[in-house]
């Protein structure tokens, strides 16, 4: 009986250790999830000052080249199997001239572009190349996509849009967008974009799930 009891004791000990380790992992995972979901001070120096732009959502705050913006709302766009996001920004100091937004996509590398509304223009994306403010842009893409709206975007909860993208030198871009509704096609909205280099955009999560 002695060896048998010893074996039983060893098995019981192994089982007990396994149960304790499993319970510990569960507690740690629960605590980490709670910390991630808890509201956080976006200016807390202990926060991650890089962040992942792919996780941006309404309520977050971003900083680029010393300027801070609130994310007011987001569009989640889909064209076939390809998806990307556009985030509408509100400058914290109120000095931004015109609407600005941030596009985030992976094609296949992560690409983040900061866009500024180009006003007072009768440009149309009909030509293969366009010159704006001395820079020549060449059309790279033209199509339609479905969108889902989150937060404040000025659009309904879902719909369809048409876009045309042009690329210029030095990471500069020109974009046309118009939103399609029951009354037909809307007017073209024109924006100029600059590519955001990796590591220069700071994301402060707004908290919550």
Largest sheet: 8 strands, antiparallel, barrel
In total, the number of domains comes to 2
Q: In which range does the helix fraction lie?
A: 10-25%
Tally of DSSP helical segments = 1
Any low-confidence stretches, pLDDT <50, length ≥5?
A: 41-49
**Global mean pLDDT:** 83
Q: Note the run of SSEs as H and E.
A: HEEEEEEEEEEEE
Query: What's the alpha carbon Rg, rounded to whole Å?
Result: 25 Å
Strand order of the largest sheet: 2-3-4-5-11-9-8-7
SSE-based structural type: alpha+beta
Beta-strand level of the residues, as a percent range? over 45%
Count the E strands. Answer: 12
Protein name: DUF4178 domain-containing protein
InterPro entries: DUF4178
Organism: Streptomyces marincola
Task: Please provide a written account of the structure.
The chain is α+β, with helices and mostly antiparallel strands and 209 residues long. The chain has two domains: 1-38; 53-204, no CATH class. Helices cover 17% and strands 46% of the residues. The chain has one helix at residues 2-37; strands at residues 61-64, 67-79, 82-91, 100-106, 110-117, 129-132, 135-151, 158-167, 172-181, 184-185, 189-195, 201-204. An eight-stranded antiparallel beta barrel has the order 2-3-4-5-11-9-8-7. The radius of gyration is 25 Å and the shape is globular. The N and C termini lie far apart (57 Å). It holds the Pfam family DUF4178. InterPro entries: DUF4178. Residues 30-43 have a biased composition (Basic and acidic residues). This is DUF4178 domain-containing protein. Residues 30-54 are annotated as: Disordered.
